[in-house]
Write a structure and sequence with these properties.
Elements: E1 17-18, E2 21-22, E3 33-36, E4 49-50, H1 51-62, E5 74-77, E6 82-83, E7 85-91, H2 94-103, E8 107-112, H3 125-137, E9 140-143, H4 146-150, H5 156-164, E10 166-174, E11 177-191, H6 192-203, E12 208-210, E13 216-223, H7 231-237, E14 241-244, H8 249-258, E15 261-264, H9 267-270, H10 273-286, E16 289-295
Parallel strand pairs: 7-8, 7-16, 8-9, 13-14, 14-15
Antiparallel strand pairs: 1-2, 3-16, 4-6, 5-9, 10-11, 11-13, 12-15
Helix pairs in contact: 2-3, 5-10
Length: about 300
């Protein structure tokens, strides 16, 4: 039976809900906490999952062994053996860890976790503070990077397509990673500037738009996060537009010279939605209480 706890004092964090998504750029101070309701949540106290069962199920669902990644996927720090309260967020930064501790989460599930390839292994400074926070609070830390980008039901690319009204036609390998680049057709043709405005409205921040002046967008390719170097793959596919999170100096010249509309909509902004969809699914399946917390990041 799930244990009952007194409701902790809750920090007031201003919500910023826009349409089907959650918006950054709300004018709050950097690192501010935004708690969002998202889609329908499980009612608190309805269920409980053994944390090991929760991890095994999620690992299987996302097929974590199918991809070579830059950090370990799945359980990164073991905490309580039972999970009643599941918090989700984009990155395991200190502000999100504090929010999980304050809410008395049993598990925190993120897209950007820890222990990245080639990073210094020493636990000092910022890294030590983060690890100490998790160990003292006692919650488990779960992270899913590339498996959450490519998942066809709950992934970042799938959710971005849903938000922007793009009908998915398929996926292809990019950067040696299967299914990382997605492509499809808009629900109806849209003038390029109007499509940029749609991105800004639904993601809560105006994108950087590069490429030709004017024109209509009917087809698009996309990769959330840092996918700017896949612009050549999008050009080879012959789509009208390419959407990703980040932009490099060289990207502007490529977009202009090759005549493709390029939209950099924000690394954080394009990757908010997969972790929410996954959290909602896990809450429904196991009867957990789920809370998504958005730590604003303008990048």
């Amino acid at each position: 039976m799930a244990r009952r706890r007194a409701a902790p004092a809750r920090r007031e964090c201003p919500p910023a809900v826009h349409g089907g998504g959650l918006a950054a750029g709300t004018g709050s101070p950097a690192g501010a906490c935004h708690v969002h309701s998202g889609r329908t949540r499980a009612e608190p106290g309805e269920g409980m999952a053994e944390t090991g069962t929760l991890v095994d199920y999620t690992n299987s669902l996302l097929e974590v062994d199918a991809l070579r990644d830059y950090s370990p996927n799945g359980l990164q720090v073991a905490g309580r053996s039972e999970t009643v309260r599941l918090m989700t967020g984009v990155s395991a930064c200190q502000a999100l860890l504090e929010a999980a501790r304050e809410w008395e989460a049993d598990a925190l599930l993120v897209h950007h976790g820890w222990f990245w390839k080639n990073e210094p292994p020493q636990l000092t400074g910022m890294k030590l503070r983060r690890v100490r926070t998790v160990l003292e609070a006692g919650f488990s830390l779960l992270a899913y990077h590339l498996p959450l980008d490519v998942h066809r039901a709950y992934g970042n690319n799938a959710e971005l397509a849903r938000l922007l009204g793009i009908m998915v036609a398929g996926q292809q390998t990019a950067g040696g990673i299967p299914d990382l680049l997605w492509f499809g057709r808009l629900d109806e043709p849209v003038e390029a500037r109007a499509f940029g405005a749609r991105i800004g409205e639904r993601l809560g921040r105006a994108p950087t738009h590069l490429g030709p002046e004017g024109g209509t967008i009917e087809t698009a390719a996309w990769c959330t996060g840092a996918g700017q170097d896949f612009i050549d793959d999008a050009i080879a596919r012959g789509v009208d537009a390419f959407i990703t999170g980040e932009v490099s100096e060289r990207t502007a010249h490529t977009a202009r010279e090759c005549g493709i509309h390029f939209f950099a909509a924000g690394h954080h902004a394009t990757e908010r939605y997969g972790v929410q969809a996954l959290g909602d699914h896990l809450a429904e399946r196991f009867g957990l209480e789920h809370r998504y917390v958005d730590i604003d990041n303008p990048v």
